[in-house]
Write a structure and sequence with these properties.
The complex is a heterodimer of chains A (300) and B (374).
Chain A: H1 2-6, H2 8-30, H3 38-56, H4 63-88, H5 93-116, H6 137-155, H7 157-167, H8 169-174, H9 179-205, H10 217-227, H11 232-251, H12 263-280
Helix pairs in contact in A: 2-6, 2-9, 2-10, 2-11, 3-4, 3-5, 3-9, 3-10, 4-5, 4-9, 6-7, 7-9, 10-11, 10-12, 11-12
Chain B: H1 2-16, H2 18-39, H3 44-56, E1 58-59, E2 64-65, H4 68-92, H5 100-117, H6 125-151, H7 155-175, E3 184-187, H8 197-202, H9 211-228, H10 230-240, H11 242-247, H12 252-278, E4 281-283, H13 291-301, H14 306-321, H15 323-328, H16 335-348, H17 351-373
Antiparallel strand pairs in B: 1-2, 3-4
Helix pairs in contact in B: 2-16, 3-4, 4-9, 4-12, 4-13, 4-14, 5-6, 5-7, 5-12, 5-13, 6-7, 6-12, 9-10, 9-12, 9-14, 10-12, 13-14, 13-16
Classes of the chains: A mainly alpha (300), B mainly alpha (374).
Chain lengths: 300, 374
C-alpha cells in the first residue's frame, strides 16, 4: 500500500494525458461522431510539442506552455480532416479516423527526418517540472478540463444542444440547432484536447518524440470513453483506473508483492475490463444513440 | 450537344466506378507524396527509381539487375494481401475489422508454438502450424463476431481492445517458452519453415517462400466463398441490408460470427506466413508489425474484392519493400507511410463523389423536365 501511495505522482503523470484525450473523445461522441483517431492526433500533438520545445527551450522559460499550445493547435488542424470527411461528406467515420492514425506515424517521423535528420525529435534538456508534492501540473490541467467539460455539457444550453446532436440529430435540427456546426465544434475540440494530451505526455514522461511515444495511450483513452459510459465522472474514473494499470505495468518491478506477475498482466487489464463491461452493460443505452452515424439533412 | 452528353456520361461512369476511383485515389496519394519530397528539397526521381528497382530488380543508378528485389517485394506483399482479405471479407458483411492486427498476432503466436513444439515431420509440420494459425486467428475474430451478434458490442471497439490483448498475451506466452530471452525464442526446426530452396534460388536468395501459395490460395478461397457459396450470398446480403436479409430468412447472427471467423483466419494465416517464412526463430513482439492496420488500406483500395485486394496488396508491399532503397537515396522512407495514410483519407472522401453524382442527376432531371415542358 505504501508503494502505491509513493507511486501517486507517477500514476497521475500517466493518467493525465489519457484523461485529457478521453474527455475529447467523449465530447466528440456526445455530438455523434466517433473519433478513433485519438491515437494519431495525440502523436501529432506530441511531435509538435516536442519539436517546438526543443527549438525554443533555451530562449524562453515559458517554452513548455508554448509547446503545449502548439501541440493543441496541431491536433486541432489535423482533426479538420476528420471533421470534413465525417460531417460535410457523410463519410465513414472509422475510415477517416484510420487514415489519420496511419498518416500520423508517417507524417511525424517524416518531419523529424527533415528537421532533425533522424527518426525522432532531438531530445530536450528539461521537460515540464513537477510542482507541489511531486505532482506534474498536467494533473491540474486534466482536472480543470474534466470539470469544464462537465459544466459545458450538463450545465449550459450549449451542452444540451451538443448532446442532442448525438442522440437525435433530426430532432435537434428541427429545434433550430445547426447539427453540422455543433459536430464540427465537437470534433475540433477533441482534436485540440488530443493535441494537449500528446503534448502533456511527451513533456512529462519522456525527453523526445519517437514512433513509440504514444504507444496505445489514445486507444486506452478510447476505451475509457466506453468504460466511463460517456459521462465526465465515469471517464475520469476509467482513466484513473486504466492509468494506474499502465503505471503498475511500468513500475511493478519496484513492488515486492507484485513481482510474481508478468508486467503484461497490468498492460492487458484496461482492455479486458473494457470488453467485459461492454458485454455486461450491453442492451442498456449508455452510448449516444446517433454516435457514428452521419447526419444527412432530410428532404429537399 | 451530342459531344457534351457523351462527356457527361463518361464522367458519370468514372465517378461511379469503384476501380476508377481506386486508381485515381492511389495516383493522388503518389502525387502528394512526390510533392512532399520536392517540398523538403529532395529529388523525387530517387523515390521512383527505388520503386522501379523494387518492382523489376533493375537499379538504374548503377545499371545492375538483381531479381532478389522482386522476391523481397512479393514476400513483403504476402501478409498485406492476407490481412487485406481479412478486412475485405468482414467488410462484405458490413463489418469493420480493425482487428486484423490482433488476429495476425494470435496467428503468429500459434504458428510459433506449433513450430517449436509440433511433430517434426517434413511436409506436415508447417502445414499444422498454418492450420493452428488459421484456427487461432479465426477464434480471435469469432469472439468479436459473437459479441457483436449476441450483445451488440461494437466490433470497432472490441477489435481495438482485442488487438492489445493479443499483443501483450503473445509477449507473455512466448516468454514462457524455455530458452527465450527478451526478443527471441530458440530457432525453429527446419521442418517448420516455409522457405523453399527452389523459390529462393529462382529469386537469387530472397526470402520469398511457400507463403506465396498460401496467399494465392486464400484469394481463390475468398472469391469462391463470396461468389459461389450460399454462405457468401447470405453474408453479402447481410452486408448490403441487414434488415432485408433477416426478413428474407437469413440468420444474421450466425452470419456475423462466421464472417468474423473467416476474416480472422485470413489474418491468422498472415501471421504464420511472416513467422515461418521470414524468420527462423519465434519473436517476442516489441511493437506492432502493422500489417493488420495496413491491411485496412489494402482492402479499401481493392474495393473488398479478391482480385482488387491482391493488386492493392502488391502495391502496398512495393511501398514497404522500397523503404530501405529510398532511405539509401536520401528520401525519408516515411513518405511511403504518408502515401498509405493519404490514400485511406482520400478513400474516406469518396463519399463526396456520391454527392456530386446526386447533384448531377438532379440537375439532369431538372433539364429534362424543362425540355419536356417546352
Amino acid at each position: 500500500m505504501n508503494d502505491l501511495i509513493r507511486m501517486i505522482p507517477s500514476i497521475l503523470m500517466i493518467v493525465s494525458p489519457i484523461l485529457i484525450s478521453a474527455v475529447g473523445g467523449m465530447i466528440c461522441e456526445k455530438a455523434g461522431v466517433v473519433n478513433i483517431a485519438l491515437e494519431g492526433l495525440m502523436g501529432i500533438g506530441a511531435f509538435t510539442a516536442a519539436t517546438v520545445h526543443v527549438l525554443i527551450e533555451s530562449s524562453t522559460p515559458a517554452s513548455v506552455w508554448i509547446a503545449i499550445l502548439a501541440g493543441a493547435a496541431a491536433g486541432l488542424v489535423v482533426s479538420i480532416i476528420h471533421a470534413y470527411a465525417s460531417i460535410s461528406l457523410n463519410a465513414n467515420q472509422v475510415i477517416s479516423g484510420t487514415g489519420i492514425n496511419l498518416l500520423s506515424t508517417g507524417g511525424t517521423i517524416f518531419l523529424a527526418q527533415v528537421i532533425f535528420k533522424m527518426e525522432r525529435t532531438q531530445p530536450f534538456k528539461l521537460g515540464m517540472m513537477p510542482g507541489f508534492a511531486g505532482i506534474y501540473p498536467t494533473a491540474w490541467i486534466a482536472l480543470a478540463i474534466v470539470l469544464l467539460s462537465w459544466y459545458l455539457l450538463y450545465r449550459r444550453p450549449f451542452g444540451l444542444r451538443l448532446r442532442a446532436c448525438g442522440e437525435h440529430p433530426q430532432a435537434a435540427a428541427s429545434a433550430g440547432i445547426d447539427v453540422r456546426r455543433m459536430r464540427y465544434i465537437a470534433v475540433l475540440a477533441s482534436g485540440f484536447l488530443a493535441g494537449v494530451a500528446g503534448a502533456c505526455l511527451v513533456l512529462t514522461q519522456t525527453i523526445q518524440y519517437t514512433v513509440n511515444t504514444i504507444n496505445g495511450a489514445g486507444f486506452i483513452a478510447l476505451a475509457a470513453v466506453s468504460f466511463g459510459r460517456w459521462l465526465p465522472k465515469g471517464v475520469a474514473g476509467a482513466s484513473l483506473l486504466f492509468g494506474t494499470a499502465v503505471a503498475l505495468a511500468i513500475y511493478m518491478v519496484n513492488i515486492e508483492s507484485l513481482r510474481f506477475l508478468p508486467s503484461e498482466f497490468f498492460s492487458i487489464l484496461p482492455y479486458i475490463i473494457t470488453l467485459v463491461t461492454l458485454v455486461l452493460f450491453s442492451g442498456r443505452d449508455y452510448a449516444p444513440r446517433a454516435s457514428g452515424q452521419p447526419y444527412e439533412r432530410g428532404g429537399s | 450537344m451530342k459531344q457534351r452528353s457523351v462527356n457527361r456520361n463518361l464522367l458519370d461512369r468514372l465517378l461511379s466506378s469503384d476501380k476508377a476511383i481506386s486508381i485515381s485515389v492511389v495516383l493522388l496519394g503518389f502525387l502528394c507524396g512526390t510533392l512532399l519530397v520536392v517540398a523538403v528539397g529532395r529529388n523525387p526521381s530517387g523515390m521512383y527509381s527505388a520503386m522501379l528497382q523494387t518492382l523489376t530488380g533493375l537499379d538504374v543508378t548503377r545499371g545492375t539487375w538483381n531479381i532478389r528485389y522482386v522476391g523481397e517485394w512479393l514476400n513483403a506483399s504476402l501478409p498485406l494481401i492476407l490481412c487485406g482479405l481479412s478486412m475485405a471479407f468482414a467488410a462484405r458483411t458490413g463489418l469493420f475489422n480493425i482487428g486484423a492486427e490482433g488476429q495476425y498476432v494470435v496467428g503468429l503466436t500459434a504458428a510459433q508454438f506449433v513450430a517449436l513444439f509440433g511433430p517434426r515431420i517434413a511436409g506436415l509440420h508447417w502445414l499444422l502450424a498454418l492450420l493452428a494459425a488459421a484456427v487461432a486467428g479465426g477464434a480471435w475474430g469469432g469472439i468479436v463476431g459473437w459479441l457483436k451478434a449476441k450483445f451488440s458490442v461494437s466490433e470497432v471497439v472490441a477489435t481495438i481492445m482485442l488487438n492489445y490483448v493479443a499483443f501483450f498475451a503473445s509477449r507473455w506466452l512466448t516468454m514462457l517458452i524455455p530458452g527465450t530471452n527478451t526478443y527471441r525464442t530458440p530457432s525453429f526446426p527446419s521442418t517448420a519453415r516455409l522457405s523453399s530452396p527452389l523459390i529462393s534460388r529462382l529469386t537469387n536468395g530472397s526470402r520469398l517462400n511457400l507463403g506465396l501459395f498460401v496467399a494465392l490460395l486464400s484469394c481463390l478461397v475468398f472469391w469462391f466463398i463470396i461468389e459461389k457459396t450460399k454462405l457468401g450470398f447470405e453474408l453479402r446480403a447481410t452486408g448490403l441490408n441487414k434488415d432485408a436479409a433477416r426478413y428474407a430468412g437469413i440468420n444474421v447472427t450466425k452470419g456475423i460470427t462466421s464472417s468474423m471467423i473467416i476474416a480472422g483466419a485470413f489474418a491468422g494465416l498472415a501471421g504464420a506466413v511472416v513467422a515461418l517464412g521470414s524468420f527462423s526463430y519465434g519473436r517476442v513482439l516489441g511493437g506492432n508489425d502493422n500489417y493488420g492496420f495496413n491491411g485496412i488500406a489494402v482492402a479499401l483500395v481493392g474495393n473488398n474484392t479478391a482480385g482488387g485486394t491482391m493488386i492493392a496488396g502488391l502495391l502496398f508491399g512495393m511501398l514497404a519493400s522500397a523503404q530501405p532503397l529510398m532511405q539509401s537515396r536520401q528520401i525519408p522512407k516515411e513518405v511511403t507511410w504518408i502515401i498509405s495514410g493519404l490514400v485511406v483519407i482520400f478513400i474516406s472522401l469518396r463519399a463526396a463523389f456520391r454527392i456530386i453524382l446526386d447533384k448531377r442527376a438532379k440537375r439532369r432531371a431538372a433539364e429534362l423536365k424543362e425540355r419536356s415542358d417546352e
